[in-house]
Amino acid sequence: SLENGRVYTFEAIGIDWETMEATPMFGKFPYDRFGSAVDMTKDGLRFIVGAPGREPSGAYFQIYEWNGSAWVLAFEEQGSSGDALGSSVAVLTDSGDVFAIGAPGYKGGDGKVVIYQRRSGLQRAATDYVELGQPILGGRGDFIGRSGAVTGGVDKEEGLLLIVGAASGDVRTYGYDPSSGSWDLRIETLSTDANLLVI
């Protein structure tokens, strides 16, 4: 239906895979391309889905949580016109409390990656999810945050790390500094082939 997009979730029951929901989740509008990027927490109880959209539809991403019998929309963030927010999504911690969202169309192709953290607490609310530090911004024509070019994790010594690929072939590693609340560039390397980026 005009590239609205849809997402299905499956659970392994014995040797078979069975759908977890009665009906798939659909994008809200035509050309949302809902499901262009997905990632799931290690425990399988929360997942992120990107809908980078195409004009005139707007870009967004959503987070769903499993309540024991159904997926419940827990958080949603809308992008700006043309930024393609949700082109990439990446869960950065095993708990799934920190995740990154890419918007490669930001500022006409500079791109940006926004990192969110889920606050701990007993009651769920829209404010459970807040930005962690400032967004990481690309330079002219970097298109950072594009599909397949954002990943990360936690290193025992370095802490929270984020790896971002740029259209130029640069691969940049950022580390989060809790004392300053900022993402600092740790390593910048250049791919041997600017047209081939594998992370």
Low-confidence stretches: none
Please, how many helices? 0
Q: What number is the mean pLDDT?
A: 85
Radius of gyration: 17 Å
Order of helices and strands: EEEEEEEEEEEEEEEEE
Number of strands: 17
Helix content: under 10%
Q: What percentage of amino acids are in beta strands?
A: 35-45%
Judged by helices, strands and strand pairing, the structural class is: mainly beta
Main β sheet profile: 5 strands, antiparallel
Shape descriptor reads globular
How far is it from the N-terminal to the C-terminal residue, by CA? 32 Å
**What multimeric state do the chains show?**
single chain
Describe this structure in words.
This protein has 199 residues and is mostly beta strands. It is 0% helix and 45% strand. The chain is built from no helices and 17 strands. The strands form five sheets. Strands 9, 10, 11, 12 and 13 form a five-stranded antiparallel beta sheet that branches. A hairpin with a 4-residue loop joins β7 and β8. The mean pLDDT is 85.
How is this fold's topology laid out?
Elements: E1 6-7, E2 10-13, E3 16-19, E4 25-26, E5 37-40, E6 46-51, E7 60-66, E8 71-78, E9 88-91, E10 98-103, E11 112-118, E12 129-131, E13 136-137, E14 150-155, E15 159-165, E16 170-177, E17 182-190
Antiparallel strand pairs: 1-4, 2-3, 5-6, 6-7, 7-8, 9-10, 10-11, 11-12, 11-13, 14-15, 15-16, 16-17
Question: Notable features of this structure?
Answer:
199 residues, mainly beta, four-stranded antiparallel beta sheet, five-stranded antiparallel beta sheet, globular
